[in-house]
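Hey, I was hoping to borrow your eyes for a little while. There's a protein on my desk that I can't quite get my head around. The fold is given in discrete form, as structure tokens running alongside the sequence. I'd be grateful if you could look everything over and explain what you see. Here's the protein in full, and shout if anything looks odd to you:
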Amino acid sequence: MSEHRKNRSRVWRTSGGSNARTGLFDGKVRIGTSPSCREVEGGIRASPVFDGIGNCYLASMAGMVSSYTPDGDERWRVRLPAGISASPALNPSDKAVFLGTVGGEVCALDPLDGRTLWKRGVPSQSDRRILSDLLFLPVQDLVVLNSWGGQFHALEAETGVVRISWSAGISSFAAAAAAANGRLYALRAESTEARSGLVCFSLDPWSGEETEILFQPGSRRAANRMKVAASPIVDEMRQRLFIVTNVNNDSRLHAYSLVTKQFLWSRNFNRFIVATPTLMADGSVAVGDLSGVVHVVSPSGSLQHRYHTGAYYLLAGPVCDSEGTVFIGDPEGKLHLLSPEGTGTVIFEAGRSIEGRPAFDPGGRLYLPSMEGNVYVFSRH
């Protein structure tokens, strides 16, 4: 694969497109404003995911999992015992789609017909809810997730047996990201007598060895899920890691060199950030905060654009195409398009809140999940 395509993905088998979580699509996208609709019982927070031929897989808060062809025909529909908030993941061979439920179960389904291949309850001494988006590591053949009980788990893809577990801290909500070699990057909040704050760390999934990248001190007040909500994103082409930290009343976006092991810059924002940012083809980063503003930050850390969506906050992460066009949904149900020049417009309005990250199918059509139980599909023009 050429250098300029390392960050882009045509087949989005996990939220954000690839394990790097960049949200960057490999191609220029122009979409229409009259979408078709895929109906799923229950509100949808999980991002749609796809197999190699463009079949989509949708999961709802009612526990319904559905698969549709690229033409919109339903292939199958199954109900799991509990609701699904976390985005599913497929392995690259499309042999299984993996899902985590708020009941604490991980399920592997056959993409052909939805039958259960295996299911496992995650070990936990407290709350087993799985709220973070799933990740599949092809080299290690592992499914990675974390639960509200404060543990990350790496499960064997063939059996669901837990191979490695490690601390996810308190109020764990942010999903892990991974580089192409399978090395994991994650966040956790700590509150002990020794120290209190946020930690970003990397982990070797073979050995379980953990390396601390960042510790940002914070207050000792009670934790909440917003502290660790946005996933790290990996810029493979430039060998950078982008980290969002929420401490006290503000947030910071950090750029870290995976080569020199040093921080390149940090930029402060005056509101928390819970939505995973998107990496743009030129190395810029677009991030939405809890004041409803989308900030576009340059590769050097300077602010390029700021767009006010008009919403009170933003929960769902943005995505973008190879030309720098950004798409983001808001809690009022509006889909916003932000041009490469920084001009934003509302191009569609759903009936209820948008709380899940949009996704592109292999053909470049945009899938927008909503809490009214619909996924809107915008054809590529």
Notes: The chain has one domain: 3-378. The chain is about 0% helix and 40% strand. The CA atoms of residues 297 and 303 lie 5 Å apart. Residues 1-6 have pLDDT under 50 and may be disordered.
